[in-house]
Amino acid sequence: MGGHLNVNHLIFLGHGALWTVGLSVIALVGGGIVGFAIALARISPLKSVRLASAAYVQLVQGTPLLVILFLGYFGLAAIGLQVSPLVAASASLTLYVAAYLGEIWRGSIQSVPKPQWEAAEGLALSRTQRMLKVILPQAIRIATPPTVGFMVQIIKNTSLASVVGFAELMRSGQIVNNSLFEPFVIYAIIAVVYFAMCYPLSLFSQRLERRMGRGRVNLAPA
Amino acid sequence: MSIQLDFPAVLERWPSFLGGAVLTLELAALATVLGALLGTLAAVGRGTHSALIATACRIYVEAIRNTPLLVQIFLVYFGLASLGLKFSAFTVAVAALTINVGAYTAEIMRAGFEAIPRGQIEAAEGLALSRVQIYWHIILLPAVERVYPALTSQFVLLMLASSVCSQISAEELTAIANYIQSDTYRAFETYIIVAVLYVVLSLVMRAGFWGLGLVLFPRRRRLGTPL
Question: Where is the ABC transmembrane type-1 domain (chain B) (predicted)?
Answer without folding.
Answer: 21-209
